[in-house]
Write a structure and sequence with these properties.
By secondary structure, this protein is α/β, with parallel strands linked by helices. Helices cover about 30% and strands about 25% of the residues. The relative contact order is 0.10. The C terminus is likely disordered. The structure holds 5'-O-[(S)-butoxy(hydroxy)phosphoryl]adenosine.
């Protein structure tokens, strides 16, 4: 079998290349990294010099699906394992690169036959399975822009996303299974399509559905190997062509449709996968996210497949029926690199290390963390129990908007330490600034900014460039505002404290408190709602809601349940508040702003010492 051209043969060789790469200028570095991809048309300029919406790899043309599949087959890797899939019932199926290519072309052919073409938006509402990944690659093959909607989102969230993207097709499956429960995905799509806001949808492609509505929009997945020319020989698309839209929560009620452009996104995703995970032919990489989130886009689908690596994916919860499942999976499949969220680590820690039992997890060589700050206790436990003190931990900081990893230790180069995402990746210029715009000293917390553009920076918010500029570029002109608080320690290693805005992180799921508030006030009994995130030992943060009721409505347990149901139906189960407090009035400043800091203290059960006449200061860096 052909050896992947980018793998280093030894740590020494990697260190030498690192040294060389570090000495390159900004443009030369990204030019060098772009050579990890196959370009149909060469680019003539690395970057146009603009920050917001700036173009990368100008004049370049490529096809993402070709880069993830065809080129590996042409290089003799057709029989190499692309995906090992297992579901909660223990059903296992392997896909070689050849087989994944075939599945992708089969889906692309059906989409093409239904008139899906370059620039059309396709919503993907699928289980965490190979068909979901192949659906993404099938869209990319045709130049269609995919928007994956996490299977945990409810009908209303699906409607909003389909409507905002004006999706022409939806790809779904009968159901998925999690913790023994069946979740009927297609039923949610059926209900969403009854809404006139989904009138843009002309095709619904369904996997594994026994019964389909007699609606001409619906088609079944029927495999064919008689592919249209456009599918067999995929076109190349301009490097600036949008590859996908992914909705993420902001500080206002409406999620933002973050979109990424093909060339820049793929270059940085391939580059970071290579430098940070350095997957060899014998490696099996398990990124335990879902394709519905950016981590799944960049490090389940595009990163590893661009580099011809082998991935493991699991449909279900790896702590079901018990925490032993995770150790069992690592042993059974000989997983060598695990990339997961601190919440998962804390959950395993809370379950107890006895679940590890006699499982042989010596195949593991590297552990990754992503999505939220990892507390030192969880870090040490991760290193000792899963890493058996043998594996390094890479704590990787990035965002939906950054597209790819921005800060992380690089194995063989840096020595990672608990609680730190080490340092910025090559050519990434991170700074920590005080409210007054001054550089923070070491150990001083401030706003994390990025001062120079990078290739996988999102190109915008779908249909709302103004909001894009406002959200990320207005607060500190000339820099990208991350929304996170952070500090550099005395070694200049970075520590991320988390969000400083009204975005919370629950089990690694990003959620705007305003979204939950909108769901609550949509209930007839509610006059006003305020939602805050407070610390939780396992899930990182949890939501606590404060609501005031309409006249003549009385608080009750039944109403509390109804409100939780309301949030579940509008957003999804994961967004349900852990507690709802009924209040006659919500505490406000004289100018009418809800005093969130005060509510956070109340939610934490603290004695309220704060002067409640003080304005809630947006500049205050929160400690939760
Ligand atoms: C927010 C972005 C990056 C993919 C998953 C989440 C937080 C992310 C870390 C980390 C501390 C982290 C930040 C960031 N975050 N990684 N290693 N340490 N915090 O993507 O949903 O766009 O959320 O997740 O607060 O702003 P996302």
């Amino acid at each position: 079998m052909a050896i992947h051209p980018f793998s280093w043969q030894s740590s020494k060789e990697k260190q030498q290349s690192y040294k060389k790469a570090s000495s390159l200028s900004y443009d030369r570095f990204w030019h060098h990294e772009a050579m990890r991809l196959s370009w149909k048309e060469s680019f003539h300029q690395v970057h146009d010099g603009t920050f917001a919406g700036g173009e990368w790899f100008l004049g370049g043309g490529l096809n993402a699906s070709f880069n993830c599949l065809d080129r590996h087959i042409e290089n003799g890797l057709g029989q190499k394992t692309a995906i090992i899939f297992e579901n909660e019932d223990g059903f296992v199926k392997k896909y070689s690169y050849q087989e994944l290519h075939r599945l992708t072309c089969q889906i692309a052919h059906l989409l093409h036959e239904r008139g899906i073409t370059s620039g059309d938006r396709v919503a993907i509402y699928m289980p965490m399975n190979p068909q979901g990944i192949a659906s993404m690659l099938a869209c990319a093959r045709l130049g269609a822009i995919h928007t994956v909607i996490f299977g945990g989102f409810a009908k209303e969230a699906l409607i909003d996303r389909i409507h905002d993207a004006k999706a022409k097709a939806v790809i779904t499956a009968d159901s998925t299974k999690r913790k023994g429960h069946t979740i009927k995905l297609k039923d949610v799509v059926d209900k969403a399509l009854d809404d006139t806001k989904c009138n843009s949808v002309e095709t619904v492609l369904c996997f594994d559905c026994e019964t389909l509505a007699s609606d001409s929009r619906y088609i079944r997945f029927v495999p064919t190997d008689n592919w249209a020319e456009k599918v067999r020989e995929p076109h190349s698309f301009d490097a600036q062509h949008p590859l996908f839209i992914l909705y993420t929560s902001g500080t206002t009620g409406k999620p933002k449709g973050i979109f990424h452009a093909t060339g820049g996104y793929l270059v940085q995703v391939a580059s970071t996968t290579q430098w940070i995970f350095d997957l060899k032919d014998k490696d099996l990489f398990w990124c335990s996210a879902d394709i519905g989130w950016i981590t799944g886009h960049s490090y389940i689908c595009y990163g590893p497949l661009l580099l011809g690596n082998s991935i493991f994916i699991f449909e279900g919860a790896f702590n079901f029926p018990s925490a032993a499942r995770l150790y069992q999976l690592i042993e059974q499949h000989k997983i060598s690199v695990l990339y997961t969220a601190p919440t998962a680590v804390r959950m395993l820690m809370a379950a107890g290390e006895e679940y590890k039992g006699q499982h042989d997890i010596s195949s593991l060589r590297l552990l990754g963390s992503v999505g939220e700050p990892i507390n030192p206790e969880a870090w040490s436990w991760y290193k000792r129990v899963l890493g058996e003190d043998r594996c390094d931990i890479v704590d990787t900081w990035w965002q939906t908007e950054t597209g790819a990893i921005m800060m992380s230790a690089v194995p063989d180069i840096d020595t990672p330490k608990a609680g730190s995402a080490s340092k910025a990746f090559f050519a990434i210029d991170a700074e920590i600034i005080s409210e007054q715009g001054e550089l923070c000293k070491n150990n001083e917390t401030g706003y994390l900014l990025i001062k120079k553009p990078w290739p996988s920076l999102a190109r915008g918010i779908w249909g709302d460039q103004e909001r894009f500029l406002q959200s990320y570029f207005d607060k500190f002109p000339g820099a990208y505002f991350t929304g996170d608080g952070a500090y550099f320690d005395l070694d200049k290693d970075i520590h991320i404290n988390g969000r400083i805005d009204d975005v919370v992180n629950i089990s690694g799921h990003r959620l705007g408190t305003a979204e939950v508030e909108s769901a609550l006030v949509a209930h007839a009994a509610i006059a006003e709602a305020a939602v805050v995130g407070i610390h939780d030992d396992v899930t990182g943060q949890r939501l606590v809601a404060f609501v005031s009721l309409m006249p003549n409505v009385e608080p009750s347990d039944g109403l509390e349940e109804q409100l939780k149901e309301q949030v579940k139906n509008c957003i999804g189960s994961f967004a349900k508040p852990a507690a709802i407090h009924f209040r006659a009035l919500l505490p406000k400043t004289r100018s009418g702003k809800i005093m969130r800091r005060l509510l956070r203290s109340i939610a934490r059960g603290e004695e309220v010492k704060a002067d409640i006449t003080t304005l809630e200061d947006s500049s205050a860096l929160t400690t939760t």
